[in-house]
Every structure is written in C-alpha cells, then in structure tokens.
Amino acid sequence: MLYQAYNDAKQSVPESDVLESVLLASIRSCSKVYLLLDALDECPEDHETRQIVLARIERLSKDAPNLKILVTSRELNRIRVSMEALFAEPLHVATSAVDADIQIYVATEVSRDRSLRQLSPEMRSLIETTIASQADGM
C-alpha cells in the first residue's frame, strides 16, 4: 500500500491524508499496535503543526480500537486538553527524577571526555549539577 501510494503520487511524497490512510490500514491489519510518540511538546507550533498532529492522533485512536498510544511530553495545556479528550491516563514524572538521570548521564559523558577528566572533581561536579539543574526535565 505504501509503495502504491508513492507510485500514485504526482509529487515525490504522497499527501498526508493518503499516508494517514495507509497507516490506519496497516494498524487495522494487526491485532494490537503500540505507537510511541516521544517529546510531543517539541513538535513545532508553526503553521499549527502540533495541532494537526494531535488531531491525527485523535482520529487514529478513534478509528483503530486496537491501537495503544504512549505519548511523552512536558506538561503543556493544549497537549493535556487533547489527551483528556482521548481519555488518556496521565503519568506524571517528577522533574527531580529526570534531573537525577540527566546528572548521571552528564557525569558519564564528563568521565569519558579526555579534557574534562583533567578538571578538578569540584569543577566536574559543578558542571554536572549545573547542567542537570538547568535542563528543566528535558
């Protein structure tokens, strides 16, 4: 179906409605499908891109009852309202937990970098805590 959609397209890429139809048909052909959308809050808001994505998620979830969707996002009102319309169950993750993971990641990367390893332990610790605290859960 996807191959046919590309062959039928007068442009290099089929229209988004055609691609959505192909996706829906593919989802319906399976007994259960899991869709993961990570960092939905990072989807651009220009030209209402995020709203278009949210509307398509809503259509897919209504048209394919076998579809299970997991969306990650920072707490943003428009996304929360859209997810509530889908009767989504929110799972809140404390920013402090994410910041701790970020600090562990930064510490690992600092220890791998030859020039950063030469810094004093205090300076490396300052780098790690500063980046983690400024990450704002991202």
Class based on secondary structure composition and strand pairing: mainly alpha
**How much β-strand is present in the residues?**
5-15%
Helix content estimate: 55-70%
Largest sheet: 2 strands, parallel
Give a quick precis of the structure:
This protein is mainly α and about 140 residues long.
Can you walk through the features of this model?
The chain has a two-stranded parallel sheet. Helix 3 (49-63) runs parallel beside helix 4 and helix 5 (95-112) runs antiparallel to helix 7 (121-134). The chain is built from 7 helices and 2 strands, in the order ααβαβαααα. The protein is elongated, with a radius of gyration of 21 Å. With 138 residues, it is mainly alpha-helical. It has 2 domains: 2-85, no CATH class; 95-134. It has helices spanning 2-8, 16-28, 49-63, 77-85, 95-112, 114-117, 121-134; strands at 33-37, 67-71.
